[in-house]
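pinned: reference chain
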Amino acid sequence: MNKHRQPTVFIGHGSPMYALEPNRHTDAWAALGKRLHKPDAILLISAHWLTRGVWLTAMQQPKTIHDFGGFPEALFQIQYPTPGSPALAQRVQSLLTQAVVLEEHEWGIDHGAWSVLRYLYPNADVPVVQLSLDGSLSAKEHYALAKQLAPLRDDNILILGSGNIVHNLRLIDWDPDAEPLPWAAEFNQFFMSQLLANQHSHLLEWQGVGDAARLSIPTPEHYWPALYPLALQGGGEQVEIITNGIEMGSISMLSFLIR
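pinned: its structure tokens
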């Protein structure tokens, strides 16, 4: 691996339809890809791969997974033919103190990954390994696990989380001009204030923040990927907001970079 320190990034991925319908958020992702030093590989933590235990994709050619229903056929036709990296999977396995399953057959690149990567790296020419979210871990335990990945950043590996800070599908408003629901805007702003102040403790104990947090995070799998870049923040590193906003009333598009 090349010796270059990569930033660490969280992308609020929003609707799968953004893969077909570019907007100001996807424009920001594309611009980010153009200005980042090209990584040797990407370790991606997606909200859409929830497992029992910790798993890593370890195949040479991961398949494109269309893990959703009820969307136009054109979305199911999208392919993101990026290579995998068994070598990176083995490196990650060696860094983690937890037992890790190397997955070579069933998974691949899910839409939490490819809907973002097709804008960041449209040529699909950067190898990608996905790290699953162990559903049995707490927020603090995900944060502690993420800290073990820190050496990868100095070896030109981009560690990328993909989820949404606010993700409440039950209360979504499909009107494209929907106003942010007050609680969604409140928690999104709270998260951003703590993020920019480099204060992570309340973000790890979000259940105690109040009703806005509980409505914003009815289930934690879209929130957990944001904790990985937070855990990887080094001393003196700063946060940069890539894009922000609440779409469809209850989905935060807040995306950030740390370096």
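why pinned: The mean pLDDT is 97. The longest strand covers residues 157-163.
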